[in-house]
Write a structure and sequence with these properties.
It is a single chain. This protein is about 10% helix and about 50% strand. With about 575 residues, it is mainly β. The strands form 9 sheets. It has a 15-stranded mixed β-sheet that branches. A 5-stranded antiparallel β-sheet has the order 2-4-9-6-7, with no helix packed on it. The protein has a 3-stranded mixed β-sheet with strand order 19-23-22. Helix 5 runs antiparallel to helix 7. The longest helix is centred in the last third of the chain and has 15 residues. The two termini are about 30 Å apart. About 40% of the residues are buried.
Amino acid sequence: MKTSAQVTFGLYNLAMRLGAALAYDGGLQSFSKIDDLKTGNVSGFPYATLEPDFWVLDGRYKLRSTTDSLVHVGLMSMTQSGADGAFADPPTLTVTFSELQSSDGLVLRFSPMSGDYADDIQLTYYNLSGEVLHQGAYTPDSGEYEIDLVVNHFTRLEIQFNATNKPYRYLRLTGLDYGQLIRFSGGEIRQLSVVEEIDPLSLRIPANACDVRIYSEDDLFSIFNDNDYYSRLSQRQPLSVYGIVDDAQIFMGQYYLDAWKYAGAKNTEFSCVDLVGILEHIPYRGGMFDGELAGDVIAAMLDAAAMPYDIDEDLYNTPLRGWIPYGTLREGLQQIAFVIGAVVDSSRSYVLRVQKSTLAVYSAEALDLPYAIQMMKSTAELKPSVTAIELTAHAYTEGTESETIFDGTLASGRTEIKFSKPFHSLTVEGATLAESGVNYAIIEASAPDTPVVVSGLGYTDSARTMRVAAETGLYAYENVIRIEDATLVTPEGGAALAQRVFDYYQMRYLQKTKVYGESYQTGQTVLSEVTIAAQKIQGTIEKMSVNLTGGFACAMEITGAKA
């Protein structure tokens, strides 16, 4: 098996993408939304469709939701290409701007996950008077393709799609960005690894990470170069990571620069996070919920942060009841994911996926992980026994007793006051209440050092503890897991959720092993042979550390039970 790696840095003009008006003349699938190209909100997995040799039964393809509003595929044409890959009537995407624009490149993303792209296009730029500034034919050769072209003072561009790289394919365009795509591969990548991790219970939402060391002969990304690249990278631009196995390109995910440092001798090291890592830095004011649908709440949270996402239809209509405290988007999403049984992950995707979590102990199907393909030094250990789960359920009602929330002086202008517990029916003395929620109040004072008193009525929490316990002997060691701060857990749903948590902790086997190749991913249920004597465990791959410059070696951590 021959392996290598590739990294592409997207140095894009986000304002251009958001400000563009898009029109397509070839007819779209009913669920296709070309405005997905503006928001970047395109599903990370390809949808299974009836095209010859398209639907690969490897678990990466998903059935399309019957609710079109939940489907985000970007642009997907109504007509297929022919036997030679050519379109009988080539469709055109027209991009119009209200103001003059200039760009140093155009990047088109087709369908990297399935390896489908348009391999024959014509690109035309127009000025304000409708005159052609540039026209050229291009032949994309991958799912992510850059046209390295400087065009100044244009207001419209047209992309005509003449053919696809495979016969009988719908045209798929999942991304359109304006700027440069800087590509590194082969010996330019001195080290590249990604760490992917999930928590099946969502008691936490782990962030994926990517570390890469690049050699650039011209010190392109040196921290000492005060150039345009430095300026753009400072704004958390994306980078896409690929593994190459026997000349097949495998998309390993999109990451965002978190830190970089000069490593000497024209080497630069980048530490990157995924979308979950970005969520940690975005505040979320939380709220009190009484039947709102989980999908609507999640969509509002992520739309406000301009975060692309994909929500499992089976989870969307779950009602939420309870309180989310003031915190970060990551913390708020964790509260929801735990109570609805979801995993939040962006592994090998351009979007944040909120998917239904199936514990390995409940799963009827599992992928085989034979002992023969595992490297030496595979280990298995037994986790400590958990004898009981105590889960606190919450029921909030509006209280009638007034409390002083804040008593002090405020500077002139607006000040946000955060609450440590929820309040309603706020009153303010000495200033104006400009905006409020159950977790915060924005107070507007007209003068410096204004004395202000903020009061409100609290909430009563009728908390109950749900307990699930195993039968133990008289002298057995008791190990109880207590979950008290899951404030969306209700008395009605708490018992089932406590049982689910208990069942997870009965999967006590932790296997650490290593394989070569891309066949496995986090979240998959596997039937793993732990010993040469064919002892097996059925478990979930919860963590993978993939060394893309070390032969595509994947170190896995699997939690499960004896099969």
